[in-house]
Amino acid sequence: MFRNQPSRTASRDSSGFGFPWNKLGRLYKEDPSIFSKHPKELTDRLCEYKSYGFDNVTLIGICLSFPYVLSGECKLGGEIDALFDDLKKLCIHFDLIRCVEGNVDTWYEVCRKILVFYDMGCEKGMVGELMGRSKHIFVEYSEEILVQKMEFFCRLNVKKEEVGLLILRSPEILSFDLETPMISVLDFLKHFGFSMKKLKSIAQEYPHVMGRNKMANLPHVMRALDLHEWFFNELKGGNHHLLGDYVFSGADGALDRDFKDGLDRIHSSRTPLHTISKLNFMHGIGFGENNLTMKTLVHLHGTSSELQQRFDCLLRIGVDFSKLCRIITLSPKILNQNPRIIERKVKFLCQDMGSSLEYLDVFPAFLNFDLENRIKPRYRFHMWLSEKGWCTKNYSLASMIATSEKNFVGRIYGIHPAAPKQWFECFSYKKSSNGCVKRH
User: Fold this and answer.
1) Is the separation of the CB atoms in 133 and 167 below 8 Å?
2) Does residue 253 register a pLDDT over 90?
3) How confident is the model over 408-418, as pLDDT tens digits?
4) For the chain, how many helices (H) and strands (E)?
5) For this protein, what is any one GO molecular function term (predicted)?
């Protein structure tokens, strides 16, 4: 069929299979090993697949999208059988073939859309029935739309497989505009059935999330409220239509006066685009159009992409999304540091100091202090005092680190008159000239 470099006879074979020349490059890029196979081996394999009931055009589209069915990397009876079981249900039993224009380009696009669901983790051999019942999505929506919608729900921090199944079970979601509409957070939650008592409690606990935001930011709004799991369960449970039915009415969504004043100041400043970009970052992680958002914004330094990297770093380390948003309102400057520095401080907190990430809920400013010149020497000095038996009181990390130098020295003098001399000579970063090194 095609072996090594395609010859003039490579576009057709004795069994009538014909792969378009303009698609062979894509197939070679996906799996070059196919072109080292003997033509008869490929022909026999294709004839075996054709026995499932597919015509040549459909089968070529399948092979272009799932090259491993030609390469033989997966044996029949395993993944390939599971794949063809799904495709047979979708294309033949549910008659998708009748809905698709019979050319290779169209079938390749259809199979690419099917591949999207497998890439999301949907198990081959288990979703053919669901795909068949929602077969219209493979004709009416582009691959880009499918990926876009799935990415929206994946931002709820749920399993990708669950997102794929949600789309297959509730395909009308694909018609919802999840980008441009505005939402009012409390109005949206009310639309989903929250009582006034519950709404009041949420407003008090999460003031930084209140106000208006874009529908595109809804997944992170829900994560900032710690309601993402509840929300996704509502969608899975049949209330997905509420997402499509929601209309921003302006109720409880009027622009916050203080927020508007802050917005006016931004637009009249020297760097409005830079500041608006940072504000959009904040909205993107769930902060609403409110005064607290503006107050927090003032303390954030760096570009929006740098702020996002630092935020993602803290998430990757293990800080809970909702807690991290609240921490930022208490100590915004934690986002003004290089991710590598943040990682080192958290590592020292958890491994050397024996604390946990939860301590950042109590003392988020820990991340604002210099690791080498403040955190390490003070902590190690207190450990030394305890080992000497001079300090019998357990001081909190905050009292060790956040205390001013003057008060710190006064405290350790009260613990032992000789302590300040030891601090300045062997622990403080203001090391004396006698060559005494810091304690490690």
Assistant:
1) no
2) no
3) 999 888 888 88
4) 27, 2
5) nucleic acid binding
